[in-house]
Amino acid sequence: xxxxxxxxxxxxxxxxxxxxxxxxxxxxxxxxxxxxxxxxxxxxxxxxxxxxxxxxxxxxxxxxxxxxxxxxxxxxxxxxxxxxxxxxxxxxxxxxxxxxxxxxxxxxxxxxxxxxxxxxxxxxxxxxxxxxxxxxxxxxxxxxxxxxxxxxxxxxxxxxxxxxxxxxxxxxxxxxxxxxxxxxxxxxxxxxxxxxxx
Length: 198
Description:
The protein has ten helices and no strands.
């Protein structure tokens, strides 16, 4: 096996392990909010933390979940061969969604996805964040913001001339949609809860 392949595998493992850090659970327990997996949807992300009524905890979860995705990319950009960082970022997203420590029952990956994209290309990342915020504010439904932002990822990558990221962007979009399949069903039925609703 070549050195480049070994490096790629190593950074995929590092990215995955960074992604598995369950900040939502850690913050909720540290702030006395209970076991996040027994609250609301049972999800470990910021949207479910918000259902505890603690906006500060939700904001901290959002930032830290995004940070771990960005960290996986930035470390790989600094230390790994060229082209490895995007796969380390994708691995971090997979780690958040399917953490080995939680029997592969993780979050839906939106904050981590945004952190990855921001670290790979901040113009694309800012456009994705703006898309997420606009759609979430207009609809007042978190999943609509997430799904709209994910769908826009490859569009913004293409427009910002980051065609080198299109394959990875497509895979991230597919994973975000897969993790939101229950939300998609509720959206079709008109039963998806509004932001902040417990």
